[in-house]
Amino acid sequence: MPFGNTHNNFKLNFKVEEEYPDLTKHNNHMAKVLTKEMYAKLRDKQTPTGFTVDDVIQTGVDNPGHPFIMTVGCVAGDEESYEVFKDLFDPIISDRHGGYKPTDKHKTDLNFENLKGGDDLDPNYVLSSRVRTGRSIKGYALPPHNSRGERRAVEKLSVEALNSLDGEFKGKYYPLKAMTDAEQEQLIADHFLFDKPVSPLLLAAGMARDWPDARGIWHNENKTFLVWVNEEDHLRVISMQKGGNMKEVFKRFCVGLNKIEEVFKKHNHGFMWNEHLGYVLTCPSNLGTGLRGGVHVKLPKLSTHAKFEEILTRLRLQKRGTGGGRSVRGGHSLPQLPTMEGAADGRAAGQPAPLA
Amino acid sequence: MLNKSYLKEVFQSSMLKDVMQPNIMFVQCHLLSGEVFILYCVTIISKNYSNIIETLNFKRATHYNGPYTVLQSVRQFQQPIQAQKAGLDGKQVGKETLPPPFTVSILSDGPRSQRSLSSLRSLSDCGNNMASSFSRILSSKRNVGILSLVGAGSLTVGLLLNREQHVSAGAPVRRVYPASAEYPDLRKHNNCMASHLTPAVYAKLCDKATPNGYTLDQAIQTGVDNPGHPFIKTVGMVAGDEESYEVFADIFDPVIVERHNGYDPRTMKHPTDLDASKIRSGQFDEKYVLSSRVRTGRSIRGLSLPPACTRAERREVERVVVNALGGLQGDLSGKYYSLTDMSEKDQQQLIDDHFLFDKPVSPLLTCAGMARDWPDARGIWHNNEKTFLVWINEEDHTRVISMEKGGNMKRVFERFCRGLQEVERLIQEKGWEFMWNENLGYILTCPSNLGTGLRAGVHINLPRLSKDARFAKILDNLRLQKRGTGGVDTAAVGSTFDISNLDRLGQSEVHLVQTLIDGVNFLIECEKRLEKGQDIKIPAPISQFK
């Protein structure tokens, strides 16, 4: 939770040993990396908005983790967090993104014309195609740390940007706190509506504060381009449609993102991006592209094959239930693994993004 | 003659030259008449200045002729101060603007200064935790000598050494947007905070912070995140430290008035009375009363409360309290079970005894930040007889519970008082004390628990009375409350209820327990009459504040 700036200074009156968290029973990336010495080095720092190392690690301290699933255990409160606390974030990023080094550069390519094929995935098997990513608006603190004023400013700017879209992107914004029952029903039926987070990973990071203030959903009339505002990130952008034309989905994704970015740039609030980390998002696991491209696919025979998991791993793919990161139902959705380029191995198969 | 320049001269005495960075100065002045005035002024002296820069304010203390009085008045000056900068040779080299400091008022001193201190906080430009060291210095008898000088008409200057400042002062709260952009949307809310937090009050308080850095936004977060229930009006805000009640008085005071049925901390005084010998007829008929219990909470002065405490502070609370509890003897002697390293066997035993508390799941608590770092520095202490129990770092620094099976409420309360007073004595030996002041009584995290923080209750079986239509009204008039036997928010099992006092603030512990005892006896009488087929009467409503 964001404290007043003086709170961190006040903590410095206590010795490192007294403040250092007990991580003996913890199994997450933060706990692996945060030694007492590192904590001592970072604890008197804060970002320009006042985010401190204790704010970064609170979610990891409160959620010791699971023996099988390695969560990240830390979040960024603003763009500068990744710089001010790089001693902590760099090894975590490296671990999470398959050895990505602090000196590596991330390549961004949103030119849909560079995509080969993808327009003919057999619709007898592929039920739907989807690409999602996140974007953060430069100059504003991120969901763990932002104030109501900042969150509302992000909403206002986002809605302005989205309402300026036309053609296939023309759409409407539905703020969570002013939704009619009919609208809510429709959004649920379309599987668009998002709820207040219940995961302790998110709650402990302070992302559900002031819910549902300044949260909302925007989608185009065709229901093929959807944006979540102020959920886990400033923006979550989703392009999807039924069937197997991933090329079209990706084209819409790229075009839509570029159009939105133009509007933000005009207001001097482009997206948070740098050449090392790519697109900057709240959770280190989403850095780089923040991209999850996937399909809902029916594989009744292959999925029962003994080598299914290995095939997926070698193809750098991950499977989930069709409910998303948490459920297991019916067919399989196959997103691809790495979110940062230059990472040879990416995430291990079967690991869902911890904050999604 | 006691004026600025005289004091300045005194300050520049040799005693001061050795001191690099004092922040707070207090002056105790003994007058010829034998009266004692305590003056305080706050000055800022930073590393760059070798002289006292400027004394900001002299405030005449309360005229003191009693053993002690209560204090607490931390006010934050809005204006920055002009300071003279002096070079190492003492020559003035220029002026500089220093950020607004705090003034601290100490309103009393005296032989038993235990209750006489607020937590003194350091200035806004360093988040120093001087309060604990300072209050400890002043509370232990040997250090009162520092303050007072021999002889009438003498002037004593006390100095408190500052620890090294870590960073230069910044604005207490990061404010990029005006208050109107930050004001929460409370249109769908039903809690005490939402009822009283107008945009004007928010604008006034939103850029203030307590000396430890606790802000209004944090205090109200739980109320913003939990809109409430049409039938149950929650409080909707918490205190992060003792000073919260002062710094954010403009919102806390009306909330307290509403929650405590008209008790106004601005004008009224809260009586504390832990003399169990005053209790009359505290033995209930055990045909009806199954168990008796009294609980309260206590906070350790100088350490932040659960919504705001750092890990170190929480561990310090644990250390201080467990240390004190270790000194209890006789029927009170017992053992501490830390939540972090509890054996399976101990855990099962505590569950069987219904002593174990769990990580809070209620969003009212989690949104206030009270479950951070769980289970670090949390634990349970109980005596060998399992009749005196202390929870450490759950919703408050400590929750103290005395209980036993049966209806001997007088004995339960006697043990309660004895245990509390013993623990208080033991922490005072080490220079600590409980948070308390004469308007709010014992300071706890939630405003609903201010005053006595006391809930005295019984588990009672009232098969006939509970079905009578007048039951609710009878309870109401007796200032009693019923709950299920699982505690707050549970339903009753059969016809067994938890009956306890409604009030917390404005009446003393003895008074509240006596009210409970009288009320329960009345309920038992009603039940007996109904058994015999006789009619019952609704009692006249009890008046609240004496």
From TrEMBL, chain A:
Family the UniProt entry places it in: Belongs to the ATP:guanido phosphotransferase family.
UniProt-listed Gene3D superfamilies: ATP:guanido phosphotransferase, N-terminal domain, Glutamine synthetase/guanido kinase, catalytic domain
Chain intervals for the UniProt region annotation (Disordered): 320-356
GO molecular-function term, one example from the UniProt record: ATP binding
Record flagged with keyword Ribonucleoprotein: no
EC number(s) recorded for this UniProt protein: 2.7.3.2
Protein's GO biological process: phosphocreatine biosynthetic process
UniProt signal peptide: none
Enzyme class of the recorded protein, top EC level: transferase
Species per Swiss-Prot/TrEMBL record: Astyanax mexicanus
Residues annotated as domain Phosphagen kinase N-terminal: 11-98
This protein's name: creatine kinase
Keywords assigned: ATP-binding, Kinase, Nucleotide-binding, Transferase
UniProtKB/TrEMBL annotation, chain B:
Major place of residence: mitochondrion
Domain Phosphagen kinase C-terminal: 288-530
Record bears the keyword Transit peptide: yes
Entry keyword Transferase: yes
Binding site for ATP: 291-295, 354, 399, 455-459, 483-488
Record's GO cellular component terms: mitochondrial inner membrane
Residue intervals of the Phosphagen kinase N-terminal domain: 174-261
InterPro entries associated with the record: ATP-guanido_PTrfase, ATP-guanido_PTrfase_AS, ATP-guanido_PTrfase_cat, ATP-guanido_PTrfase_N, ATP-guanido_PTrfase_N_sf, Gln_synth/guanido_kin_cat_dom
EC number(s) from the headed UniProt entry: 2.7.3.2
PANTHER family membership: ARGININE OR CREATINE KINASE (PTHR11547), CREATINE KINASE U-TYPE, MITOCHONDRIAL (PTHR11547:SF24)
Subunit architecture: Exists as an octamer composed of four MTCK homodimers.
Name the UniProt record assigns to this protein: Creatine kinase U-type, mitochondrial
Organism for this UniProt entry: Astyanax mexicanus
